[in-house]
Amino acid sequence: MSSMLIYLVFVTALLAGACFYLFFYRSWRRKQHLEQGFPEHWVVVLEAQVPFYRGLTSDLKRQFEQHVQLFLTEKNFYGCDGFEVDERVRLTIAGHACLLILARPYSDYDEIRSILVYPDVYRVQEQVQDGLVVTHSDQVRAGEASSLGQVVLAWSQCEESATRPGSHHNVILHEFAHQLDYLDGTADGAPPLSGEQAEQWQQTMTQAYEQLRQSLSHQSESWLDPYGATEPAEFFAVLTETFFQQPQHLSNAQPAVYEALQKFYRIDPRMFCKYHN
């Protein structure tokens, strides 16, 4: 065999390997993981920690389990301040996070790489610049999301969300909603949409956001957690919490908003809300 032929064979093999890795390896690897099956003892934990799971149809339950399985395989969990991340912690976080993509493609979470878990709320120093003036503030947080694929959570707040599934707040849903918002590169309250759906979203959410801010300025009773009025990104995250935690309330208060979220998440949580009790 001539040296030129050997070189061509080598280059062809190299290109084939590169193409496989870039376009097929992730799918092949995921298929291999899913063929291992869903551990039975995980079902017990999810039923206790993610009540929504108990009411899913068999098809949705299977898809949910696959999302959870891939999430736990691909995402790195780190305990902070001495916190030990055990299987129950990982399943609780993965379970609530995967509710958001229950009827959406798992690839929505491709860019998420790590989840940092503190035992309780934690303090951070935030720097704010206004012109030439720089100020520092000490803030207490229950969670945060980063465009770099990192989510930070306080376990005490995650556990409260799991034990009070019909409450106003769910920090896991909130922070992973921010990650979906980041899919188009920035957290602006509008996840990736196109065409007519994008136009309807913009019109519906802008109107609802301004209505919320107006009602709060007049000290009226708010139909949503006031934190949602701080900026559009928080509006979307808080709406997501309410959509899954209190779907009937949101549907009654803001039917157009509920419909927009239903189209985006491709599911109607009212079908399963009885399992919140």
Describe the structure.
By secondary structure, the chain is an alpha/beta fold. The chain has one domain: Collagenase (Catalytic Domain) (3-Layer(aba) Sandwich), CATH 3.40.390.10. The protein has helices at residues 3-23, 25-34, 40-49, 58-74, 87-99, 155-163, 171-181, 195-217, 232-245, 247-253, 255-265; strands at residues 76-79, 114-118, 122-130, 133-141, 143-145, 150-154. The strands form two sheets. Strands 1-2-6-5 form a four-stranded mixed β-sheet. Strands 3-4 form a two-stranded antiparallel sheet. Helix 10 (247-253) crosses helix 11 (255-265). The longest helix has 23 residues, at 195-217. The radius of gyration is 21 Å and the shape is globular. It starts with a helix and ends in a 12-residue tail after the last helix.
Please describe the topology of this protein.
Elements: H1 3-23, H2 25-34, H3 40-49, H4 58-74, E1 76-79, H5 87-99, E2 114-118, E3 122-130, E4 133-141, E5 143-145, E6 150-154, H6 155-163, H7 171-181, H8 195-217, H9 232-245, H10 247-253, H11 255-265
Parallel strand pairs: 1-2, 2-6
Antiparallel strand pairs: 3-4, 5-6
Helix pairs in contact: 3-5, 4-5, 5-6, 7-9, 8-11, 9-10, 10-11
Q: Count every beta strand, where a strand is a DSSP E run of 2 or more residues.
A: 6
Strand content: 5-15%
Helix proportion of residues, in percent?
Answer: 40-55%
Q: Order of strands side by side in the largest beta sheet?
A: 1-2-6-5
Biggest sheet, in brief? 4 strands, mixed
Which consecutive residue ranges, at least 5 long each, have pLDDT under 50?
none
- Output mean pLDDT: 87
